From TrEMBL, chain A:
The lineage of its organism: Bacteria, Pseudomonadati, Pseudomonadota, Alphaproteobacteria, Rhodobacterales. GO terms for cellular component: plasma membrane. InterPro entries: ABC_transp_permease, BCAA_transport_permease, LivM-like. The chain crosses the membrane at residues 6-29, 41-57, 63-86, 98-118, 143-162, 183-206, 243-261, 267-285, 313-334, 340-360, 365-382, 388-407, 414-434, 458-486, 506-527, 547-570, 582-603. Belongs to the binding-protein-dependent transport system permease family. LivHM subfamily. Keywords: Amino-acid transport, Cell membrane, Membrane, Transmembrane, Transmembrane helix, Transport. GO terms for molecular function: branched-chain amino acid transmembrane transporter activity. It is a multi-pass membrane protein. It comes from the Bacteria. This is Amino acid/amide ABC transporter membrane protein 1, HAAT family /amino acid/amide ABC transporter membrane protein 2, HAAT family.
UniProtKB/TrEMBL annotation, chain B:
Belongs to the ABC transporter superfamily. This is Amino acid/amide ABC transporter ATP-binding protein 2, HAAT family. Keywords: Amino-acid transport, ATP-binding, Nucleotide-binding, Transport. Residues 2-233 form the ABC transporter domain. InterPro entries: AAA+_ATPase (IPR003593), ABC_transporter-like_ATP-bd (IPR003439), ABC_transporter-like_CS (IPR017871), BCAA_Transport_ATP-bd_LivF (IPR052156), P-loop_NTPase (IPR027417). One of its GO terms (molecular function) is ATP hydrolysis activity. It comes from the Bacteria. Gene3D superfamilies: P-loop containing nucleotide triphosphate hydrolases. One of its GO terms (biological process) is L-amino acid transport.
Length: 619, 233
């Protein structure tokens, strides 16, 4: 019993940092409606800045002073990010903001690498709180008790700020209708910056406070973001008490998980989340999001048109080039092109659900990696023939999408996005932790194609046929009645329902189809590389696809394909440089701000502009 | 006080206001009349800069407003009451009023919450209720009260009589007259000619984003063909 209680206390102490980060994320989302993916980066910055300051400032005063200063510093960084990156894009669709914050992650990763180096830092112990206190005979670190004591005060302070002060009233009003708050004479730009700074500061404090229990390393940003999303989703977006309860729940469960189910610590929290969401789709203390509130409206979608003569010729030319490529190209070009086609199909499947379906999925890598793993597992464990295993990839990914979709499709907007991300993390943690089956991060190797495909040009044609076929198939679906129904559901769910379309069912089917096509890409991928590792399931992989779709242009069918080609080439070139993340991040941010329609979209607007001015002249 | 000169406003490519000009002198109550879709709300929003006119000028006490963010327009002394009320439904009555609160302004009547509760006694009883639990009429009072908390010089009221009970409409008319007697300049947009005549000194009629009539109600009565052509009576 005493041991049990001590475990519980450890869980409570771990909850402190998690709550701080989650509350910051929740706060920022509540007002700006931006899901700040860079929030984990602010947490990481907090840890590094904290370590540095603690090395300089002596004693207990120095330790606590360093923590307070860290929050202020990270808050200032957050304010800077908000002003430079986010301010220009508040009116842009969710995806743009998301991609922009992802650019911020990349930039911060490389800046941290430049400043603090690649080595992990161990956090200093808190002066005067080094030992343990005995509670019912069990040793409990003194610092843990301090953390447990501090957290409720932070919760109370935040609660007081939000519910009892003028700033809090304005913040809550802006959450609901920011334009009206502006029309009443409040400079909402500063309100947003302030909230973003406070949210970032909370993440920074979280990073600094956990130092004596952990340390600072360059993987902290991605490592915490999954847990933070789980906490925010379980607690309910925008609810501070919800974030607190969920942080405690998750932390306590993980502590017991480590003791009793050491193999499943990562999976556990996603299972809890799934259970909570079955019972309460909007989290413990969250409320249903009302669609169509004031303040957020993108430009209306232009109708999809068939390609003109030039477009058709371009596509035909490209296909002819691809078909004859093995006749003259070197092998590495073929390999690169296979990568490109795989990525293009993956991106096209994401574009299908995201652009056409209007469902922003943050976890699409689950299906790509899931398909790859499904085929690889069959080959690895049962020596299945390659052809059969390959067919299993899209099939398994489609089934996985049906399973995940069952939970996710009920939700919309940010909840949908978060939940898909959390489920992809669940799949990732399975691949990572279920070592008996998946061999963890050693990956599955020696997954080669059948003999008749086992030459670079044979596999190239195999890829070309299936990849291009898959993309054309998706294009066909978009232009079929099913695609029209899907777009109707995206643009006006209620009206679509009223005309007799079962929007949720259509979306569910589309989600499964997108999953299956991503699985197909994964299947091609695994046999081209001969191996698969959990990295294919990481958040980063999902984000690569999102960025590609975004770079190409969300509103155009060719967007994903063009973006994938562009991205493969850019990455191939950039990754040769030491600080390629920094450059890629800056590139992404620049595209978001300067050319938010993506490559294809921007080209198209340019064309219409030229045509428009010509026709005006002719008038 | 407010001089609007040849403004052109668009929603996307749709040309909503095609060169609208009018003045609102200090101390007057001016009614902007027209059918649904005539451009009344767009006119209000164009003054507030919630819709940006692409051309023309909106000047308030000699200060050009076009291009300014909405909060600067509000700080210049314009109070805007939107047609769809847009109260903060999760906030209490007191909190809604707090959002609108601004420091006192020279030359404008100064409002406190208690004074507002005298004008709108219904709200006084419901001060700790959330916005979403108010009736339509109460919400309309709250949205006016919220804007008055900003101590505006000029009040823009977009269709205050829409969707509320006839008894409340009468109260609303009295309230507007009371505001006028406090020295407030008011511009209301209306479809209800009867209501407009009861509160306003002057009528401006628009149709298709263009001005069709500008004059007193006596003049308007002398030209029933204008009323028949542009107002649905």
């Amino acid at each position: 019993m005493a041991f049990f209680f001590a475990q519980f206390l450890t869980g409570l102490a771990n909850a402190a940092a998690l709550f701080l980060v989650a509350s910051g994320l929740s706060l920022i989302f509540g007002v700006t409606r931006i899901v700040n993916f860079a929030h984990g980066s602010f947490y990481m910055l907090g840890a590094f800045v904290g370590v540095t300051l603690m090395e300089v400032l002596p004693g207990a005063v120095g330790f606590w002073g360093a923590i307070i200063l860290t929050g202020l510093a990270v808050g200032a960084i957050g304010a800077f990010v908000e002003m430079v990156v986010l301010r220009p894009i508040y009116r842009a669709p969710e995806l743009f903001q998301l991609v922009a914050t992802f650019g911020v992650i990349l930039v911060i990763q490389d800046l941290a690498l430049m400043i603090w180096g690649a080595e992990d830092r161990l956090g200093p112990r808190a002066p005067g709180l080094r030992g343990v206190w005995r509670i019912f005979g069990e040793p409990v670190p003194k610092y843990d008790i301090i953390l447990i004591a501090i957290t409720p005060f932070i919760l109370f302070a935040l609660w007081y700020l939000i519910t009892r002060t003028r700033v809090g009233v304005l913040v809550r009003a802006a959450t609901q209708d920011r334009e009206m708050v502006g029309a009443l004479g409040v400079n909402q730009a500063w309100l947003f910056t302030g909230v973003f700074a406070l949210g970032s500061a909370l993440a920074g404090w979280g990073g600094a406070l956990q130092l004596p229990k952990g340390g600072a390393d360059l993987l902290m940003d991605f490592n915490i973001i999954g847990a933070v999303f789980v906490v925010v989703v379980i607690g309910g977006m925008g609810s501070l008490p919800g974030a607190f309860i969920a942080a405690v729940l998750i932390s306590v469960l993980s502590v017991f998980g480590v003791t009793y189910l050491p193999q499943s610590t990562l999976v556990l929290m996603f299972v809890v989340m799934a259970i909570v969401l079955i019972v309460r789709p909007y989290g413990l203390l969250g409320r249903e999001e009302v669609a169509g509130e004031h303040g957020q409206a993108g430009a209306p979608e232009t109708p999809i048109r068939p390609y003109g003569r030039v477009g058709k010729m371009l596509v035909a030319g490209l296909l002819a080039l691809l078909a004859t490529l093995p006749l003259f190209a070197e092998q590495f070009v073929l390999t690169l092109t296979v990568d490109m086609i795989v990525f293009a199909l993956f991106a096209a499947s994401l574009h299908f659900i995201l652009g056409t379906g209007g469902l922003v999925s943050f976890g699409h890598a689950a299906f790509f990696g899931g398909g790859a793993y499904a085929a690889a597992l069959l080959v690895f464990h049962t020596d299945t023939r390659m052809e059969l295993a390959f067919l299993f990839a899209p099939f398994a990914a489609g089934l996985l999408a049906l399973g995940i979709g069952w939970f996710c499709i009920r939700l919309t907007g940010v909840y949908f996005a978060m939940l898909t991300l959390a489920f992809s993390q669940l799949v990732w943690s399975l691949a990572f932790q279920w070592r008996d089956v998946t061999r963890g991060d050693d990956g599955l190797v020696n997954i080669w194609p059948a003999d008749w495909l086992n030459s670079p040009s044979a596999y190239y044609y195999f890829t070309l046929a299936l990849g291009v076929g898959g993309i054309l198939f998706l294009r066909h679906v978009i232009h079929a009645p099913f695609g029209y129904a899907l777009r109707a559901g995206r643009d006006s769910p209620r009206q679509a329902e009223a005309t007799g379309i079962d929007v949720k069912r259509i979306q569910y089917a589309a989600f499964a189809l997108a999953g299956a096509m991503a699985g197909l890409a994964g299947g091609i991928f695994v046999f081209s590389k001969g191996s698969v590792f959990p990295t294919e399931l990481e958040i980063g992989a999902s984000f690569d696809a999102l960025i590609v779709v975004f770079l190409g242009g969300v509103k155009t069918l060719a967007g994903g394909v063009v973006g994938a080609g562009f991205m493969t080439l850019v990455e191939d070139w950039l990754t040769r440089l030491e600080y390629w993340r920094l450059l890629l991040g800056l590139l992404i941010i620049a595209v978001v701000i300067i050319a938010p329609e993506g490559i294809v979209g921007s080209l198209r607007s340019l064309c219409t502009q030229i045509r428009g001015s010509e026709s005006e002249v002719s008038k | 006080m407010l001089n609007v000169n040849d403004i052109h406003s668009y929603y996307g490519k749709a040309h909503i206001l095609g060169g609208l000009s009018f003045d609102v002198p200090r101390g007057e109550v001016v009614a902007l009349l027209g059918r649904n879709g005539a451009g009344k709300s767009t006119t209000m929003k164009s003054v507030m800069q919630l819709v940006r006119p692409r051309q023309g000028s909106v000047s308030f006490q000699g200060q050009e407003l076009i291009g300014k963010p909405a909060f600067r327009v509000a700080k210049a002394g314009l109070g805007y009451v939107p047609e769809d009320r847009r109260i903060f439904t999760d906030l209490t009555v007191l909190e809604n009023l707090e959002v609108g609160r601004q420091p006192p302004r020279d030359g404008a009547p100064e409002w406190t919450m208690e004074q507002l509760f005298e004008i709108f006694p219904n709200l006084a009883e419901r001060r700790t209720n959330r916005g979403k639990h108010l009736s339509g009429g109460e919400q309309q009072m709250l949205t006016i009260g919220r804007t008055l908390m900003g101590n505006p010089l000029l009040l823009l009221l977009d269709e205050p009589s829409e969707g509320i009970a006839p008894v409340i409409v009468e109260e609303m008319a009295e309230t507007i007259l009371k505001l006028k007697s406090e020295g407030l300049t008011v511009m209301i947009s209306e479809q209800n000619l009867h209501f407009a005549r009861a509160v306003a000194d002057r009528a401006i009629i628009i149709e298709g984003g263009e001005k069709k009539f500008d004059g007193s109600f006596t003049e308007l009565e002398a030209h029933p063909e204008i009323r028949d052509a542009y107002l649905s009576v």
